[in-house]
């Protein structure tokens, strides 16, 4: 459909360019103006812009994705759905939405960020308004922290100036230099505007392995007590999680003002995954590859992973992290 439309517009512009040379100067001016207008229309049609055509929240889509694609994370699903839905339907939020996602590797932190982006931006993670910062890639040298602070402020201000509905994802917060993230504190505050720019409609998502030990310990205690993981509530984890992250001197959140001043709206815990969840991940990946989901193959993949405690083999050490490569081996 897009190809046909492109062909039509090109034909129109070519026709205009031919006609330009055949008329007097006044008519030529009119035709050139028409051609320029058409050119801008084509550009706006295919170039992503900061408007409802390209940015529109799909609450139903996010709920369905969380229910059918994310496994073993009832808390994260519930918190993220309520937080994002409430924020995106509020026409006048008082501050940006700030989420901090915590848990061991392979539990779904990056994946849930992707689901949020896909249900807000037409281009999903490829949107010009979704920005991902990886600590070890973008901020590798401790000696340059002052330069990083200035660059980070400029990047965020420039992008929000371009589109107030911007989304910023900070990966590997546990590997970020302490003190760096405080440079963006003013943008997460309750200010109406800073230097003429409003940040209130932007979303900030932090991803971190920090706090994972605290989450795992609580999950283990529930399991040993014979209680279902679904009985775990946010109140069972949020306070200990925030304290654990705040006092971790190897984390980018160490003694940060973002936590001290309560600028993070939700600390979202990601629970360690069990065998059943790994099987579900494998089945979902087969479906994504347009293969017939095979439970026997999924079981082989799940059995290949390492679990802890060693004797009971309850939780997957790497969650669903290596599912794709394992499936390559078994299919």
From TrEMBL:
Signal peptide stretch: 1-22
GO biological process: nuclear membrane organization; protein localization to nucleus
Annotated ATP binding sites: 103-110
Subcellular location, record wording: Endoplasmic reticulum lumen
A Pfam family matched in the record: TOR1A_C
GO function terms (MF aspect): ATP binding; ATP hydrolysis activity; kinesin binding
InterPro entries from the UniProt entry: ClpA/B (IPR001270), P-loop_NTPase (IPR027417), TOR1A_C (IPR049337), Torsin (IPR010448), Torsin_1/2 (IPR017378)
Keyword Endoplasmic reticulum: yes
Record-given protein name: Torsin
Family label: Belongs to the ClpA/ClpB family. Torsin subfamily.
Highest rank taxon of the organism: Eukaryota
UniProt KW keywords: ATP-binding, Endoplasmic reticulum, Glycoprotein, Nucleotide-binding, Signal
GO cellular component: endoplasmic reticulum lumen; nuclear envelope
Occurrences of domain Torsin-1A C-terminal (ranges): 273-330
